[in-house]
Request: fold
Amino acid sequence: MNPQPSTAAGTAHDEAVDQARDEIVRVGTSLFARGYVHASAGNISARVGDHHLITPTDAALGFLEPGRLALVDARGEQLAGDRASKTLTLHRRICAADPTARFVVHTHSTHLVALTLAGVWSAADVLPPLTPYYVMKVGHVPLIPYHRPGDPRVADLVTALIADRAASRTPIRAVLLDRLGPVVWGPDAATALAVLEELEETARLWLLTGRRPEPLPHHALDELRSTFNAAW
Reply:
């Protein structure tokens, strides 16, 4: 029989898992209440040590139950809860590719899905740098070509982009899945939500203005880089 972790270590881990469960439920409720998610579309995960918590497959994010969240180990094997979301591989691979990623959110946010249907600005940047806060809080967001929900090939594409952008010192915090919506990540829930909200609202602005506004000029982008260390 494998030795059990010390009581103190085990208790600390259990407490961290419980806190992550509560945070995922809180985020799901907030996203649903504000119209960022609907029905059973989307998923949320949190990394806790070598483990991951993720919403179950087909779960309604506005009505999550802490005890039913799926807990998986370092190998991706399920330890507790309902069956994990079909996007588990993508969430785990993002956290492995970006050491700062501890909280991952995928939604089918209306304006971002609409953007993929109407046509993004470019495959490398789904939206132009329209506002200073989009540049500072979101940064570059590439488009991932359509694949069926849960297709493991998406994880290969996303992790390759994370590595390429990190090498060019313009790290990404989000991608947009064609016809499926955004995937965003950050070191905690608040950071990931800030990216999601700014991204969705900028998509709404661009669509509401008929996709006519020009991007910020180069001198404005240079100023944001020099003043706020914006990664653009």
